[in-house]
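Supplementary Methods, section 5.1.

A reviewer requested that the exact input to the structure prediction be made available. We therefore reproduce it here, unchanged from the version used in the analyses.
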Amino acid sequence: MKSGVAFLCASFTLLGASASALAQQAPAAPAGSNLQVGGLKPPEAVQTDNAPNPQTQTEVQLDRAVKEDSGRGLEFVALSAEVGPEFLGLHTLKADNLVDSKYIESKGTGLAVGAGLGVRLLAFTVGARFRYANFSDFALWTLGVEGGLHIPLGRLEPYFTLGAGYASLGSFDKANSGFAPNSAHGLDVRGGVGVDYYLTNTFTVGGNLTGDVLFLGRKASGGTPVTSDPDAMQAGAVYAADGSGIGASATLSAVVGLHF
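The structure derived from this sequence is encoded token-by-token as follows.
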């Protein structure tokens, strides 16, 4: 009996020593291997990268838009004033005794001033514009409606305009002939291109170039020139009949504006 118990104790001691030696000789599991213990599997390693998520990209785009935005809100009313040279030819397209070119220059350059008032809906404007130009032998003024298309590019804003209205030609100089025609009246058609720069959200500076076509006519004048000059007498005969003409002008203006 004692010998059997001793044999069992020796067997367990030998088995324990063998297991310890096998454990020390077993190779270590490689790093990153998927070990399963009792049916449980550790989670996969989380891979990270530097790519921003969609929400982060959206925020970046919004921040950029805020920085690039001019900061201007909606506009509803605009006021403008302009000044610049105007070149005018009264007989550019048609001449039918509107003026006698011998005593009154039918073309020339003068100083034009003007003002405009309009309303705006997004990129479109509509309003009225007055312009007065003084030349050596006469004066011309126009008053009409005007529409525009504006292209906002931050603080820089190019635009195009079209307009039409009333034109009046008068204040003729009669110093040479002693005789001047009646004032002429008619239709003014205008197209233009320009640009505004917003120094502030409400104040702009810029310039525009416009071209006009003028359809003018005048009534016959009465009276006799106070001169015995045959040419002046001829001018009186010209103005004794109705006259007309189709002229053209070009105006380059510096413009300031207020926008609300």
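DSSP finds three helices and eight strands in the chain. These observations are discussed further in the main text.
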